[in-house]
Amino acid sequence: MLKGIQLYNPDFAIKCSELNHFSEVYAIMRANGITKSYVYGMCYQPGPLTFDFLKCGMSCPSLEEKRGYQVGERITRQLAWVPGWQGTHVHSNNGADFWFGIQHFMMVPNGNIPTTFNKNELTVAVWDVSSRMKLADISDHDEYRATAWAEGELVAQYKQRFGKKPSLNIQDPSKSKYYTSGYTPKSVFNSLFG
C-alpha cells in the first residue's frame, strides 16, 4: 500500500539520550515534517550497536485547529512514564501501559532489561504516513487505514526476522483487517464510481 516502510530504515530517529524533557518530541516531529499520521517503533538500545524494537505503534489523530501542534502526542505520552527526564513529570494514566509493560514483562527477573533502565536507552524510529499518501494512490478518507497498514507492515517485518511480534505489542497489527485485506486504489474507485 505505501512504499518505503522498512523496519530498519525510518525517516528519522529520536535518541532520547539527547533530550532533556519528553515534550521536546513535539518540536522534533514538526522539524521533520510530520503533520498528521505516522508510525513509530520504540527501540531499546543497551549499547551503541545493539537495539531491539519493544513496540511498534501508530497515530492518525483527528486534528482540530488547536491540536495540530500536538502531533507526536502518542509517543510523548509513552516516553513521559520512563525514568530519567528532567522537569515536570506526567500525572495522567495515558501511556502508562508502555512503562508498566517494560517493568512487568521485560525487566529482570522476567526479562533481560536491567532495573536501572531509563530514557537514555530508548530511541524512537518514525515513518511519515501522511507524506507517503501524497505519493501513493490513496484517498484522504483512507488515512487511518493506510496508517494501520503501515503499523502492520512494521510488525510483519519484525516477525519475519525474529519469529515473533515485538514484546509490547499486545495485539498483532499484522493480523488486523487493515493489513490483511486488499485495497482499492483511489483512481480505480473513481473510474468505477466517479
| Helix/strand class | alpha+beta
**Proportion of residues in extended strands:** 15-25%
Largest sheet: 4 strands, antiparallel
Q: What is the H/E order?
A: EHEEHHEHHHH
Uncertain runs = 188-192
Please indicate the count of domains.
Answer: 1
Q: What does the overall shape look like? A: globular
What's the β-strand tally?
A: 4
Strands ordered across the widest β-sheet: 1-4-2-3
Radius of gyration: 17 Å
State the helix count: 7
How far apart the termini lie comes to: 22 Å
Average residue pLDDT:
89
Helix content: 25-40%
Description:
With 194 residues, the chain is α+β, with helices and mostly antiparallel strands. It has one domain (12-193). Helices cover 34% and strands 16% of the residues. The protein has helices spanning 24-31, 73-79, 96-106, 129-135, 143-162, 177-180, 186-193, and strands at residues 12-15, 38-47, 50-59, 122-128. It has a 4-stranded antiparallel beta sheet.
